[in-house]
Design goal:
8 strands, alpha/beta, TPP_enzyme_TPP-bd, 189 residues, Rossmann fold, 40% helix, THDP-binding, carboxy-lyase activity, TPP_dependent_decarboxylase, magnesium ion binding, binds magnesium ion, six-stranded parallel beta sheet
């Protein structure tokens, strides 16, 4: 399963949920599939998708929105693994972190991350997250649906192949505009 195949499944299940997505190829590919106001693309903010989603999930406690979905990469999560400890400690009920793990830095020449030897799902479980796994679109669809059920924090560890989709344009929108669009969408819910 390529990244864009996994993102296609996630797009199907997140039309009405806030989605905070990591930078570079992941944001570009998600926007190429569907550029929606509920997507917050963290352009150039590597390592912060889980942190921002944690804050949004805490802020939405008591609201009608059931889940906040962070889409993170393995290189990015290794940059800021404190996301796992913070989520395990604060236990935001609505937080779901989807890790697209290809074991490489996909936006910088596929240099290997630590993922081949360090299991980020096991780290999340050790910190108290409920962890699910998927490695193909059918399993991802089923496990994502289960991970949307109440009770968090939840961690969906998705193994994907290295490689970026071809022909995907750069995402050159001003981050201020993207942030405002996301805030307006949230306020309208
Ligand atoms: Mg990666």
């Amino acid at each position: 399963m390529r990244r864009i195949d996994a993102l296609q499944v996630l797009v199907e299940g997140t039309a009405d949920l806030p989605v905070v997505v990591t930078c570079a190829a992941t944001s570009r590919e998600l926007a190429a599939i569907a550029d929606r106001p509920n997507h917050l693309y963290l352009l150039d903010s590597m390592g912060l998708a889980g942190s921002v989603a944690t804050g949004v999930a805490l802020g939405l406690a008591g609201s009608a929105i059931p889940r906040v979905v962070a889409i993170e990469g393995d290189g990015s999560l290794f940059m800021n693994p404190n996301v796992l400890a913070t989520g395990g400690y604060l236990r935001p009920d609505k937080l779901l972190l989807v890790l697209l793990d290809n074991a490489v830095y996909g936006s910088t020449g596929d240099l290997p991350t630590y993922s081949a030897r360090i299991d980020l799902g096991a780290l999340a479980a050790a910190a108290g997250w409920s962890v699910r796994q998927a490695a193909d679109p059918r399993t991802l669809r089923a496990e994502f649906a289960k991970a949307l059920e109440p009770g968090g924090p939840a961690f969906l560890h998705v193994r994907i192949e290295p490689g970026n989709a071809s022909g995907v344009p750069k995402l050159l929108e001003d981050p201020v505009v993207i942030g405002r669009r996301f805030r307006d969408w949230l306020a309208s819910r």
